[in-house]
Amino acid sequence: MSTLLEARGVTVRFGGLTALKDVTLAVAAGEVLSVIGPNGAGKTTLFNVLTGRVKPTAGNVHLRGQAIERLPAFRIAQLGVIRTFQKTEVFGALPLVDGVAAGALARGDPDPLERAREALDVVGLLGKAQLSAHQLPYGDQRLLELAQALAARPAVLLLDEPASGMNHQESAHIVRLIGELRTQGLAIILVEHNMHVVMTISDRVIVINYGEKIAEGRPEEVRADPKVIEAYLGVDPNANAVLR
Amino acid sequence: MLDRNGQRLLTAAFGLVLLAIPFVVHDSYYLHLFVVAAIFVIVAVGLDLIVGYVGQLSLAHAAFFGLGAYISALLSLRLQWSMWIGLPAAALFTGLVAFLLGLVILRTRGHRFIIITVAFAELMKLVATNWVDVTRGFMGLPGLKIPNLYVPGIGAVDISSKERFYYVVLAAAVIAFLLCRTMVRSSIGRAFVLVRENEGLAESLGISAFRYCMIAFVVGAALAGGAGSLYAHYVGFVSPDLFNFSYVTIMLIMVILGGKGTLIGPALGAVIFTFLPELLREASHWRMIIFALILIVTTLFMPRGIIFPLLEHVVPKRWRARHVDAS
After folding, report:
1. Which residues from chain B sit within 8 angstroms of residue A51, using beta carbons?
2. Do B205 and A73 lie within an 8 Å CB cutoff?
3. CB nearest A103 (choices: B205, B209, B326)
4. In which band, very low, low, confident or very high, does the pLDDT at B317 lie, cut at 50, 70 and 90?
5. Dist. CA B113–CA B102, nearest whole Å
6. CA–CA separation, B34 vs B51, rounded Å?
7. Going from the N-terminus, what domains does chain A have, and what CATH number goes with each?
């Protein structure tokens, strides 16, 4: 598989705080890479660097071999790196179809509303296209975020806790959708606390703790890594059950 | 709510009323108010692009209006340029100044943006007041005239009377309104609304908030500059008073009470709030206090304004969905 997005030696410092330290990762088309770690480990900061919202103090980010770490966020999005957010971000007062059309509009699509309807259909919200986002329950808002991202026709999709706050059925729906997107050739980077989701869907997993990458590998390898168990639960030989 | 044919009929009737005003209104003072109102329609729809569509509270709009008036006056008095050339020149120059200002201030948001626009407006007033060699300071620039209009097949037509100049400013207001309406119904307008609703999300999906704020800022300023040019030639005199803060207050009242982000609301707001101060002349000391109170109450409790919600019953639902639900 050819690498689409690659971060090399990314370091981010906010004053005296090092949020990320020498983090390297790569994701290929048709691959799901999960980034896990305890709260405050630097996962969202990593997303912010990959999407141009935060400029790295050191290191670089390449998309298809092109350096993008100094580009503005909207330009990186136009190049195909699209994200969702940990805290749901929608165009609250607009009809769903108008908000979802944003990504297609940015790409200069001749019919952004049609692209929006297609994306809403993918996540199962087409029937609610004329409602405003504020009228949707939380689970549907998470799906709406995904539709917003899909309408932008991403090459790399960064999903920040897409299953957070969802019940088991909704989580299963998200997992199924992510699987379908992978088969369509999208490169997906997933930040998620729901270990069942992570272990079910991921091809590879990266673990970050205190801003440093402490492990990388296939889900079953990471799950058995003592450093990962320690990062999540401290030193307890029986604690790895939590990661299953 | 009226159907589409009803809408067309209403629009045609409204158009006829506008055209008939000089034949019906014989009082020179009220006709003067209609001329001024039409000029302020241009200002209000331009300000609506900035305040209503991209959601930036600019307090520099009166400065753009005054700048356009001064540029047109100087071109007319110093270079003997006709208003027909001075008007587009004033609009273009004002747009250029807005672009240069926007390069700096559109990278800021919130209170910083507002304060810088206030500073710019004060700077313009100081220049108009103190660059005496050019602007004559407080004495202002008198002697501006309305030129003849050359109509093919007819020749020169004197349009200096209120009755005739009314049609000139009415045409300018209609053109400005249609220009803004075309823009907000295009992909540019969609991007405006997306930036206003959630700037961070719009950027993360590939929309440059800076670019679209700049478009709204420059077009809005250019319209204010053009309106300033019309105003200067109409009243025949420009002075630093044009930069008074009260002007921007009344412009914001037109937009916010009219119904920001709707165009038609601010356009009607411009007419109503040109006439209302005159009706409140008896209470001139209280006038601005009354306006300020109305503005505060409306902003707090009626975010969609006063005028547009009343119009909702006569505009099509699809139109409402794009403009009102988004505001």
Report:
1. 204
2. no
3. B205
4. low
5. 10
6. 24
7. 3-80+154-243 (3.40.50.300), 92-152 (no CATH)
Strand partners, A5: A27, A63
Q: Quick one: closest CA in B to A146, which residue?
A: B205
DSSP state of A95: B
For chain B, give the mean pLDDT.
Answer: 90
Nearest in space to B162 (alpha carbons), one of B33, B40, B17: B33
Chain B residues whose beta carbon lies within 8 Å of the beta carbon of residue A83: 204
pLDDT of residue A49: 97
Averages of pLDDT over runs of 10 residues in chain A (244 residues) are 90 93 95 92 94 96 95 96 94 93 94 95 93 91 94 96 86 91 95 89 94 93 86 61 55
Average pLDDT over residues B59-80: 96
Q: Per the domain annotation, does B140 fall within a domain?
A: yes
In a domain, B40, yes or no: yes
Question: Which pair of tokens denotes residue B169?
Answer: 């400013």
Burial class (CB within 10 angstroms; exposed 0-12, middle 13-18, buried 19+) of B299: middle
**What is each CA distance from A194 to A32, A110, A166, A191, A227, in whole angstroms?**
15, 38, 10, 9, 19
Tell me the pTM: 0.89
d(CA A14, CA B239): 51
**Quick one: tokens of A185?**
């050739």
Residue B113 lies in a domain: yes
- Residues of chain B positioned with their CB less than 8 A from the CB of A85: 201, 204
Residue of A nearest to B327 (CA): A93
pLDDT at A189: 97
Query: Could you list the residue range(s) of the whole structural domain that residue B161 is in?
Result: 27-246
Tokens of A149: 């991202």
Tens digit of pLDDT for each residue in B188-219? Answer: 999 999 999 999 999 999 999 999 999 999 99
When CB atoms are compared, the residue of A83, A92, A105 closest to B204 is A83
Does residue B246 carry a pLDDT above 80? yes
Buried b (16+ CB within 10 A) or exposed e, B146-184: bbebeeeeeeeeebeebeebbbbbbebbbebbebbeebb
pLDDT at residue B326 greater than cutoff 50? no
Q: Which residues in B lie closer than 8 A to residue A149 (C-beta atoms)?
A: 205
Residue B62 corresponds to which tokens in the numbers above? 């009166």
Distance from CA of B157 to the nearest CA of A (A): 46
Q: Is residue B297 part of a domain?
A: no
Q: How far is B188 from chain A (nearest CA, A)?
A: 9
Do residues B265 and B307 touch, judged by C-beta distance below 8 A? yes
Structural domains in chain B (count): 1
